[in-house]
Design brief:
Strand 5, helix 3 and strand 6 form a beta-alpha-beta unit. About 40% of the residues lie in helices and about 15% in strands. It has a single domain, classed as TIM Barrel (Alpha-Beta Barrel). It has about 325 residues and is of the alpha/beta class. It is globular and about 60 Å long. An 8-stranded parallel barrel has the order 4-5-6-7-8-9-10-11, surrounded by 5 helices. A two-stranded antiparallel sheet has the order 1-12.
Length: about 325
């Protein structure tokens, strides 16, 4: 619980975002259409994702859980997601492996109309004894519709309590996913998905991937702030912005997974960021830190409505009647 509390406080009170490495989205511009031949009111953001229909191609990304403060944040986030009609991903449900009744993840009781809820567990936990039956139990308890397995080797290497054995994990993922009656996505946590990683993931029976590229929150830096070992701390600082920028990772994953879902995330802060990510090939976009900060100040609905209106406006001025029509209307500056 201390770790989860520390994560929350660091994210809320410290500058944990990349400073020198950007998402790469600023290098692109969308194709403007001054004669869109569209009625703004008829533009649709409706999006199909994992068998559900969302009102917009948006997801509140994986963040937190396992503490009373996290429970309150998750409640606010879930209620807002339900009201807007978008998806939400839970933070790592590892605490539920010890306490399956952990209330901080039970968001459906506060937001029964939530369109789509994704569970979340570190893939590396499969090397530390976690069984498919345990995963099914926590997903059933939280009434999740799908599962994120997250990959975070850099975070684990810097984390004081880190689990660093990633050996033979690909085969264990394959076996576990085969046994789960849920669609599964594989996500990174802020270092992006490279070509090397994507080609490995292509061998798995997954529904898609979430890129979580460099340019947003750095979990290596967050763990460095927690670690008292000077060598690990310095390493985390030096590797704060290591990995694949978001824009590059989206394009890599779209190419390697032409028929699977690609979720854009990693430093997405505005409707314009999200529109560029969609134009580059993402199916939906996720964001965590800005939603967390908006939830802290009870402004999460305002934040989401801003994103939705901005995205709809961009579809209008690019001559895109729907989200799918936006794809490809982008070029390097």
């Amino acid at each position: 619980m201390n770790r989860k509390n520390e994560h929350l406080q660091i994210c809320l009170n410290e500058d944990v975002q990349a400073q020198h490495t950007t998402t790469g989205l600023e290098e692109y511009t969308l194709e403007y259409d001054a004669l869109p031949e569209l009625d703004f009111e008829e533009i649709s953001l409706e999006t199909k994702f994992l068998g559900k229909t969302l009102s917009a191609p948006l997801m509140i990304g994986a963040m937190t859980g396992g503490t009373p403060q996290a429970a309150e944040f998750n409640k606010r986030l879930a209620q807002a997601a339900a009201e807007i009609g978008i998806a939400m991903a839970l933070g790592s449900q590892r605490p539920m492996l010890q306490n399956p009744e952990d209330e901080s993840f039970m968001v459906k009781k506060y937001a029964p109309k939530l369109k789509l809820l994704l569970g979340n567990l570190g893939a590396v936990q499969l090397n530390y004894g976690v069984q498919p039956s345990q995963i099914r139990e926590i997903l059933e308890k939280t009434q999740c519709d799908a599962l994120n397995f997250h990959l975070n080797p850099l975070q684990e290497a810097i984390q004081p309590e880190g689990d660093k054995n990633f050996k033979n994990l690909l085969s264990k993922l394959h076996q576990t996913i085969d046994e789960l009656p849920y669609p599964v996505l594989i996500k990174e946590v802020g270092c992006g998905i490279s070509t090397t990683t994507a080609l490995k993931l292509k061998t798995l029976p997954i529904a898609g991937v979430e890129v979580a590229g460099v340019g947003g929150t750095s979990w290596a830096f967050i763990e460095a702030m927690r670690n008292q070992d000077p060598i690990a701390k310095t390493t985390g600082v030096h590797l704060k912005e290591f990995g694949v920028p978001t824009a590059q990772s989206i394009q890599i994953c779209r190419k390697i997974f032409p028929e699977k879902y690609v979720v854009a995330s990693g430093g997405l802060r505005t409707g314009l960021d999200i529109a560029k990510a969609l134009a580059l090939g993402a199916d939906i976009a996720a964001f965590a830190l800005p939603a967390l900060k908006a939830a802290e100040t009870h402004e999460i609905l305002q934040f989401l409505n801003q994103i939705v209106y901005e995205l709809k406006t961009i579809l209008f001025i690019t001559g895109s009647a729907n989200v799918r029509s936006l794809r490809g209307k982008i070029f390097k500056k």
